[in-house]
Each structure stands twice: as structure tokens, then as C-alpha cells.
Design brief:
CATH superfamily of the largest domain: Phosphoglycerate mutase-like
Order of helices and strands: EHEHEHHHEHEEHEEHHEHEHHHEHEE
Helix content: 25-40%
Structural class: alpha/beta
CATH architecture of the largest domain: 3-Layer(aba) Sandwich
Length: 445
């Protein structure tokens, strides 16, 4: 596999490669320090490496520096130009465009049996150089990078230390993945396809689950997402509405969570998200005491119930505004509160970004850029690529996520404190399970 890593000067390209590729044992070559750059000599070094060992070539664009100087310096003396080109490269370099093609041929020959990572600096913008050889070098570099980008399996552009994949490698032929992570449209299509997602959950279990259960052989499973409801609060215990009020869990809630933890109710997670409200932060600390929260996302906070906050059904059932609100299935905004459309928009944004980030991490793993997967790749999806994500949030948020994903029986997904719903995703964002597993009890259980 051939990777091209480009970006401006001092943007973090080399640091990215050293951290994610070279740290796992890749063979490193700095073209800037190997002038002149003898291709046959480098080919010999690479041929002597162990099978499938990866190769990183830094400052690859620098191989054109001395070449452009030779082409310009000896353009008036064809015989001398050929003599110098042969001594430098081992074959006739000819004109600049021919040299670019020869470099591409050489790269193709060494990338047949191992992963090659080429780091190069973009130089097509800024002040036009005064020296003819500098102008030629910039032109040749632009042409070389353009052709390399076409030939490469993957292209990464680094800006301010942030990598962006602008060309993805082709995925195995048995997959259905698209090169475009259009997660918003994916979620929209899920919501439209509700015919297969209108059943109530039936399987409520604690401590006896396995993420590999019911997987189809060869299933391209990327990650599992556990939607966990926080522990009990005083308002929960008193059956009062609790929305954006920042109340922590009570002693009963803490003990119930601890009992569930002791029974291995909460799965080990690789990444942990949470609502910013206190009851979620405290619950996450009990459920995963050894795993700090990675991301706190306000999109997953509970709904603002406005004037209904802190009141029980017995207090509200005599109010006309409350009865009208119930008749509309709670989609309108309570007095001073948040509408159903509003919570749907922000939760949809939050879950879309969460899924997109999870798939991005999975892809970096699959391509071998992360330390745990950068070795022993055989071209297939490795058994340890999938990972687990936890989201500590609220009952209303869990139901809203299930609605967004196309599960039409909204109240079927109203789980008790400490319970979870498991979602498993393929690496194109598609759900694996038509009926997600629930751990714990439903509100009616």
C-alpha cells in the first residue's frame, strides 16, 4: 500500500509519521539527508528488510532539488547533462517530466510487497522564486505530487498537526463501504426505514452478554456503543420530572450502580462519552472507576422540561397545559422548556458526530496507522480492530437516539436507572442488529 502525506512546511507531517508509523518499527529514510538520492542504493536497502516491514521516506520532494539544479545547469550541454544524470540516478534522467515518470516507476516497484509512506512538502503557493532551478523544482514537485496522489492508495494532508484523509484506500471487495462518510444521510435513511424497527425489546440481561453474540460470519463489525442511563436521583425516586436541573445521584442510586458494577453489568470501554450533568458524571465514575471520561458533550444533556421541572404527574395532571402537552406526545415545548424538535436536532447532531468519530478511529486502525494495529496486517479485518464506546446519558436522550435511528416505538426504549442499550455498527455506519440488546430492565420491568 502506498501512502502520500503532504502539507506545508512545519505542519506536523513528520511528527505524525514518527508517532503513528515509525514508532511501530518502520524503516526510516530521510531523502533530505541522502543527496544525491541513489535509487538503486535505496532499493537495495529496502530489499534487505524483513518481509512486509514498512518504509517511511521523509522529505521525499527533496529528491528533486539536486535534479532540477542539474537539469538547469547543464541544459546547454546535452552530453554533460546526460553524464551527470546517469551518475546521479543510475539512468538517463532526460527532461523534468521524464524524471517524474521515472520516480513514479521506482516507487511502484518498491511498494509492491510492503507499505510505503512518502512525506512531502507542498510548494505550489507563495512568492514565485527568482532562480530558474527553484522555479523548475517547484513545477516538478507539483507534477510529482499530483501523479503520486493519483497512484497512491491513500493521501493524507496535515495542517497545524491535524491529519485529514483526502483519499481513502480501496476497501475489500466483499464490503459495501462508500468513500464518503455521509452519516447524516445514513441516519436519515435509518429513520425512514422504520418497517423493521418497530418491535419492542425483549432481551433484558445483566452480566451474561458478549459483543460477538449473533454476529454473521465475516460481518464487518466496527464498534459497539452502549447507551447507559445514569443512576437514580431524588427526583427519579419521587417520580418527578428532572431535565436540565443539575442534581447528582442519591445514595440509593450510587449503591445500585455499585451492585451492577460488581456483577460486571457495565462492559469495558475503549472510549467514554458523557452528558455534562452531574448525575451522569457521578454515575460514570462508579460504572467505570478506572476509565476517565474522554468526551463531555452537551448535546446529550437531558431535555429542558421548563415549568414541569421538579413536579410529579399527580401535580401536573390537573393542568390544561400539561394535558395538551401529553396529547401531542410531548413533542411541543412545555412552558419555558424545550420542544421535541429541538432535542431531536441536538441529539441527532451529537450522535452523528459520535458515530463519525468512532468510524474515523476504526478506519485509522484498519489502515494500520495506530500503534495497536500497525503490525501483523494481512489485508483482512483483524479480529481486534473493533472496540467499545460508552455513553453515559439520560433516559430521554436514549429514547431520542433510538427514534433517530428508526425505532418507532418511542417508549419501548425507556430503561431504568443504570440500564443500557447496546448498538453495534458496521464500518459504513449501518446498524448490525435489527433488535438491539438491552442490559438491565425496561421502565415497566
Amino acid at each position: 500500500m502506498l501512502w502520500l502525506i503532504v502539507g506545508g512546511a512545519n505542519q506536523g507531517k513528520s511528527e505524525l509519521l514518527r508517532t503513528h508509523v515509525a514508532a511501530a518499527g518502520a524503516y526510516e529514510i530521510d531523502a533530505g539527508k541522502r543527496q544525491p538520492f541513489y535509487f538503486e542504493e535505496i532499493s537495495g536497502e529496502i530489499a534487505d528488510l524483513v518481509s512486509r516491514q514498512r518504509v517511511v521516506i521523509y522529505n521525499f520532494d527533496r529528491i528533486l532539488v539536486e535534479a532540477s539544479q542539474h537539469i538547469v545547469s547543464h541544459s546547454e550541454d546535452e552530453s554533460k547533462q546526460e553524464e551527470n544524470a546517469v551518475s546521479m540516478y543510475g539512468y538517463h534522467a532526460g527532461g523534468g517530466l521524464e524524471l517524474v515518470d521515472q520516480i513514479l516507476t521506482w516507487i511502484g516497484s518498491i511498494a509492491e510487497e510492503r507499505d510505503i509512506f512518502l512525506e512531502a512538502t507542498e510548494c505550489g503557493s507563495g512568492i514565485v522564486p527568482l532562480l530558474k532551478e527553484d522555479r523548475l523544482r517547484r513545477e516538478l514537485t507539483g507534477r510529482l505530487l499530483t501523479k503520486l496522489a493519483t497512484a497512491a492508495d491513500g493521501v493524507v494532508r496535515v495542517f497545524c498537526g491535524i491529519p485529514e484523509v483526502i483519499k481513502e484506500p480501496a476497501w475489500p471487495s466483499h464490503t459495501k463501504i462508500s468513500s464518503n462518510l455521509g452519516m447524516t444521510s445514513r441516519l436519515d435513511s435509518m429513520a425512514c426505514d422504520s418497517t423493521q424497527r418497530n418491535s419492542r425489546p425483549e432481551d433484558f440481561r445483566t452480566g451474561d452478554f458478549d459483543d460477538r453474540d449473533n454476529l454473521i460470519p465475516g460481518e464487518d463489525w466496527a464498534f459497539s456503543l452502549y447507551l447507559v442511563r445514569h443512576g437514580m436521583t431524588e427526583f427519579n425516586q419521587q417520580r418527578k420530572y428532572l431535565g436540565t436541573g443539575d442534581m447528582g445521584i442519591n445514595e440509593r442510586g450510587r449503591q445500585e450502580l455499585q451492585d451492577l458494577y460488581d456483577k460486571n453489568h457495565f462492559p469495558a470501554v475503549d472510549f467514554l462519552y458523557s452528558s455534562p450533568l452531574k448525575r451522569c458524571l457521578e454515575s460514570a465514575a462508579v460504572a467505570w472507576p478506572d476509565h476517565p471520561i474522554d468526551v463531555i458533550d452537551s448535546n446529550f444533556r437531558e431535555r429542558n422540561f421548563g415549568d414541569f421541572e421538579g413536579l410529579a404527574y399527580a401535580d401536573l395532571c390537573v393542568r390544561e397545559d400539561y394535558c395538551r402537552w401529553l396529547e401531542g406526545e410531548g413533542r411541543s415545548a412545555p412552558p419555558g422548556g424545550e420542544s421535541g424538535d429541538s432535542i431531536e436536532r441536538r441529539v441527532s447532531f451529537g450522535i452523528t458526530e459520535l458515530i463519525r468519530n468512532c468510524l474515523r478511529i476504526y478506519r485509522w486502525n484498519y489502515w494500520g496507522w495506530l500503534p495497536r494495529t500497525s503490525q501483523n496486517r494481512d489485508g483482512n479485518l483483524a479480529e481486534d480492530l473493533h472496540y467499545t464506546v460508552g455513553l453515559m446519558c439520560h433516559g430521554g436522550v436514549i429514547m431520542e437516539i433510538m427514534r433517530i435511528l428508526g425505532f418507532t416505538d418511542f417508549y419501548a426504549w425507556q430503561v431504568t436507572n443504570g440500564s443500557w442499550v447496546r448498538l453495534r455498527f458496521k464500518y459504513d455506519g449501518e446498524l448490525i442488529d435489527e433488535m438491539p440488546l438491552v442490559g438491565g430492565k425496561s421502565a415497566g420491568g
